[in-house]
Amino acid sequence: MFARPRILVVNDDHASLLALTSLLDLWAEELNYTVVSARSGHEALRQVLLHDFAVILLDVNMPDMNGFETAEAIQQHPRSAEIPIIFVTAYQADEVARLHAYQRGAADFLFTPVIPQIMRAKVSVFVTMAQKNEELRRQTAELGKHTEELVDINGRLTREMEERHAVERASHAKDEFLAMLGHELRNPLSAINSAASLLGMPALTAEIAQRARNIVQRQTRQLSTIVDDLLDLSRAMSGKVELARRPLDLSRLVGTCLATYRATGRADLHALQDKLTPVWVDGDPGRLEQVVSNLLENALKYTPPGGSVDVSVQQAGTDAVIVVKDTGIGIAADLLPRVFDIFMQASSALDRSQGGLGIGLSLVRRLVELHGGAIDVHSDGAGQGSTFTVRLPATAPLAASPSPEQSERLAAKPSVLLIDDNDDGREMMALTLGAKGYEVRQAGDGIRGIAEASANPPQVALIDIGLPGMDGYEVARRLRRDPAMRGIRLVALTGYGLVKDQNLALEAGFDLHLVKPVATDKLCGIIDGLAGRE
Fold first, then answer.
1. Does residue 165 have a pLDDT over 80?
2. Domain 404-530 maps to which CATH number in 3.40.190.10, 3.40.390.30, 3.10.129.10, 3.40.50.2300?
3. Which of 53-62, 122-131, 183-192 has the lowest mean pLDDT?
4. Where does the record place the modification 4-aspartylphosphate (predicted)?
């Protein structure tokens, strides 16, 4: 919230000054401004050097420095040159006198005795203009800062791509990628820059301003997606991806991915079919979900509406096999050997109708290889669809018959504490987990959450980061400082999923960082795993 506009009243006569300021004070709260007074031209000059003013009410007849001389001095200083001045005078000036006044910086006149309604109307115009100008300045500054950050990201990415191009100059695919990256980044940057310029225009309507802000939000999300894809691939190619392996049923993981696509409507234009047979692997659930999601996204993107995508999971010898088959545009024979090459796309047409950077399959291959597996692709040619096959080392399933001690521990679902200020979201999650058999307690803010955890420590606490007053990071730090509550497993729930957000969560003491929304089955598996039930 920015500071209230100020009105400066300058008059050497104490009674007149008191009358004008008292009258202005009557409307100060309604019109949201502050009144400042000065008894001379010199004092007025000191005030304009210290503060910004929406308008100055300046008495013409003052000793030492009259109103015209004061106005001229105010106009000569860069800080105060644009402040509108209303001259207050007791006589009706002729046209020549008014011209002289306007040349000295006058915006208007008030004649004494002042009519309150007229003064209120004139003052309110300048106050409103000051409020609007300040709001637009702040919005423009914020958008300008964001644009600079995005331009800086663009510059860094462009430099990285140029360095790679110098090393791999012989690669024609790299040249195409650089051109494509420039296109994908400059389009949203251009839209953001235009919107920021538009918001700085003085005659902007509220409707156009809102449309400009919406454009900035949409294009920023697009840029974030591009940057996230690049960062993921960079980490995978440099070997900085660490797998959190555990035994898991691959068919359940793939089924969860398919359920998400169906629930969100992302496969509504296609026939999405599956045949899933239980088979176990030793893998990182998050990274394997990334593999499956990329293959599904690729199949849906290159399959026209009305086509079909078939997904199967089965065991073949010592391998767990995922097959994603589509009836899409297919792959030409000369492109098949290069499908998994970095920055490779089936088409580089200028219309860029499919969009994207063409790095998804390269990332899939790298993640599969990190799991000790392999991926291949088959297509009978253009228009004949494609089949992607992932092979991972199969492992023995977890023991189906736990010991009596394990059975007793597994029979009871862990206790869960939800700390979230969104009442509807918290209530729905509590009902869902309750229906799954968990003992769930709730808190709407960090203070109440800590009190609830202290009174009856849960096994797992799901904590929203954007809490009012005390954010989720501080809640985690306080829980970790209390020896009685250090055993609680803490899960951060947030809409931010960058590496820095994950690092902040871990530094604060969270065991795990999750990005909203989280599928119910996945969340239940995480809760059970943290509580030692899996």
1. no
2. 3.40.50.2300
3. 183-192
4. 59, 464
Closest CA to 89 of 77, 98, 99: 98
State how beta strands 460-464 and 439-443 pair.
unpaired
Output DSSP code: residue 323. E
Using an 8 Å Cβ cutoff, are 109 and 89 in contact?
yes
Whole-number Å distance between alpha carbons of 519 and 498:
19
Query: CA 427 to CA 456: how far, in whole Å?
Result: 20
Length of the chain as a residue count: 534
Whole-number Cα distances in Å, 61 to 9, 43, 70, 89, 477: 14, 15, 11, 7, 65
Q: For residues 464, 468, 470 and 474, what is the CA-based torsion angle, rounded to 10 degrees?
A: 20
Residue 97 DSSP code = H
- Strand runs (DSSP E) across 236-341, as ranges? 246-249, 271-276, 280-283, 308-316, 319-326
pTM, two decimals, is 0.41
* pLDDT value of residue 174: 61
Q: Which residue shows structure tokens 């969009």?
A: 355
User: Tokens in use for 37?
Assistant: 């007074």
Q: 328: which DSSP letter?
A: S
Window from 55-69, 336-350, 361-375, 444-458 with minimum mean pLDDT: 336-350
What are the residue ranges spanned by the domains of the chain? 6-114, 131-237, 246-395, 404-530
438-480 per-position pLDDT tens digit: 999 999 999 999 999 998 999 999 999 988 889 999 999 999 9
Displacement of CA 290 from its chain's centroid (Å)? 21
List Cα–Cα distances, 286 to 234, 243, 244, 253, 412, in angstroms: 17, 9, 8, 9, 26
Q: State in words which class domain 6-114 has.
A: alpha beta
Q: What is the CATH number of domain 246-395?
A: 3.30.565.10
One fold for 6-114 and 404-530: yes
Q: 34-38 and 308-316 as β-strands: parallel, antiparallel, unpaired?
A: unpaired
Q: Cβ contacts of residue 23 below 8 Å, gap of 6+?
A: 114, 116, 119
